[in-house]
């Protein structure tokens, strides 16, 4: 459970390069921390299965059933309320299809989201809401590439399928409604976890900005082990009842831990996943409908996990090669050349964005290194002068120093993107860590005096 907060989807906070080739799979297979993480998880899963096959396992499940019974009896209402609330929330946010990184300028999309939420009130109109969710996914597919949309396919289809099955009058269909949600979340987690192996560079800025995420672990140890944790707990949701319920509880703790450092964007973006995870933890059903014999056997744990890794890794790396070609450039190669598929060029709003040399055609406008430095300083100066105008000298000091420190952080980020001197790179990382700590302390000072909201 150590990798808590790192489960926030990095694409929501950092620009990424859509067509960059993933790191070679050999890099992951030669990483000792990858194998260490797998070994630890296998020990946990096998130990849990041994307990589950004993009287203690039955007792544990019975206790979990008693604790979760009030929710279990109202689970459909809970899931429907959260789905409706999610679509109201993204309606209020505006400008997105289904998640924070699937942006749209079409205003009517937000009103469709409100209609989807309203349709969930009645079982008769739930199939229409399901059709609306699929329609939004198809719209996003028009604007974004299929490989990127695979991150959200399983979850979107699963939620739509749940609404159809919940509205059905056929008991043989309805009994699978929670199972569909569970498979959707499991597939989504296993697929998105591969980013930590394929594109570890995407996570470097977050680790630099929020060093507490690693709990003191070295960056190159933490990222692959966090990927293993996410993948295997997603796999655990498809396992036997005790394994899946314990995996769900662990995931719920992890996703909640991500809310504080990453804020409302993370809470809204993960709301459906978190609700389904709660439903999995509260699910009293102990029946296994698919491949029950291998899932119940102890040998099914390593065989199943190995099979899942092979299937998902083959699909991830294979589909990327199919969409973008086997000779696509890696992140490091693109950082040295053109980055025409980056979602953002550098800006103070999106500091993770790659620096695109003028004329290279980066989305959102091209900036040279000089222009990036100038832009960061202009933003700092305006905010700093505004803060210094406060009548209270203590407040003026703090409100002026916050943008001053932020300007130093922005410059340090540019250095990390564009620079190469090891001394300066180390200094930039030191500045980011120290100045961010001081910024947090100054925000806390303002909150203590009621001068800033939480």
Keywords:
454 residues; disordered N terminus; mainly alpha; globular
Give the low-pLDDT segments. 1-8, 335-366
Secondary structure category: mainly alpha
Continuous helix count = 20
Q: What kind of assembly state do the chains in view correspond to?
A: single chain
Instruction: Give the tally of structural domains.
Output: 2
Q: How much beta, percentage-wise?
A: under 5%
Q: Output the radius of gyration.
A: 24 Å
H/E series, N to C? HHHHHHHHHHHHHHHHHHHH
What is the tally of beta strands? 0
Q: Helical content, roughly?
A: 55-70%
| Chain-averaged pLDDT | 82
Tell me the distance between the termini.
27 Å
Q: Quick one: overall form?
A: globular
* Largest sheet report: none
Give a short overview:
With 454 residues, this protein is an all-alpha fold.
Description of the molecule:
The chain has 454 residues and is mostly helical. It folds into 2 domains: 4-324, no CATH class; 337-454, Ferritin (Up-down Bundle), CATH 1.20.1260. 69% of the residues lie in helices and 0% in strands. The protein is built from 20 helices and no strands. It has helices spanning 25-29, 32-52, 55-72, 75-93, 107-119, 126-143, 146-167, 171-174, 177-193, 195-198, 204-209, 219-236, 241-269, 271-282, 292-296, 300-324, 331-336, 369-388, 393-418, 422-448. The longest helix has 29 residues, at 241-269. It is globular, with a radius of gyration of 24 Å.
């Amino acid at each position: 459970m150590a990798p808590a907060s790192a489960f926030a989807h990095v694409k929501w906070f950092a620009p990424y390069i859509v067509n960059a080739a993933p790191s070679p799979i050999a890099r992951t297979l030669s990483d000792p921390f990858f194998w260490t993480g797998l070994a630890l998880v296998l020990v946990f899963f096998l130990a849990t299965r041994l307990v589950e096959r004993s009287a203690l396992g039955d007792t544990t499940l019975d206790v979990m059933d008693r604790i979760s019974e009030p929710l279990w009896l109202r689970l459909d209402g809970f899931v429907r309320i959260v789905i409706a609330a999610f679509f109201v929330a993204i309606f209020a946010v505006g400008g997105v299809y289904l998640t924070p990184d699937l942006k749209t300028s079409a205003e009517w999309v937000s009103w469709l989201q409100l209609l989807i939420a309203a349709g969930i009130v009645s079982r008769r109109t739930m199939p229409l809401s399901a059709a609306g969710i699929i329609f939004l996914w198809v719209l996003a597919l028009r604007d974004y590439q299929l490989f990127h949309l695979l991150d959200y396919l399983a979850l979107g289809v699963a939620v739509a399928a749940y609404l159809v099955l919940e509205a059905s009058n056929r008991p043989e269909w309805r009994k699978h409604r929670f199972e569909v949600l569970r498979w959707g979340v499991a597939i989504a987690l296993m697929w998105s976890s591969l980013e930590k192996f394929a594109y570890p560079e995407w996570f470097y800025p977050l680790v630099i900005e929020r060093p507490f995420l690693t709990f003191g672990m070295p960056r190159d140890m933490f990222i692959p082990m966090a990927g293993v944790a996410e993948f295997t707990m997603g796999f655990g949701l498809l396992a036997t009842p005790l394994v899946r319920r314990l995996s769900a509880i662990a995931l719920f703790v992890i996703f909640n831990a991500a809310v504080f450092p990453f804020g409302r964007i993370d809470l809204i973006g993960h709301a459906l996943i978190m609700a389904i995870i709660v439903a999995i933890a509260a699910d009293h059903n102990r029946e296994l409908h698919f491949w029950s014999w291998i899932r119940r056997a102890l040998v099914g744990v390593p065989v199943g996990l190995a099979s899942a890794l092979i299937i998902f890794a083959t699909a991830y790396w294979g589909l990327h090669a199919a969409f973008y070609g086997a000779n696509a450039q890696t992140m490091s190669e693109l950082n040295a050349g053109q980055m025409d598929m980056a979602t953002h060029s550098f800006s103070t709003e999106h500091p993770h964005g790659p620096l695109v040399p003028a004329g290279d055609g980066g989305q959102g406008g091209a900036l040279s290194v000089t222009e990036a430095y100038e832009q960061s300083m202009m933003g700092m100066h305006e905010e700093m002068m505004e803060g210094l105008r406060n009548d209270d000298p203590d407040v003026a000091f703090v409100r002026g120093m916050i943008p001053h420190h932020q300007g130093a952080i922005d410059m340090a980020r540019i250095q990390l993107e564009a620079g190469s001197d090891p001394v300066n790179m180390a200094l930039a990382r030191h500045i980011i860590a120290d100045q961010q700590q001081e910024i947090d302390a100054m925000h806390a000072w303002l909150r203590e005096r009621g001068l800033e909201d939480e």
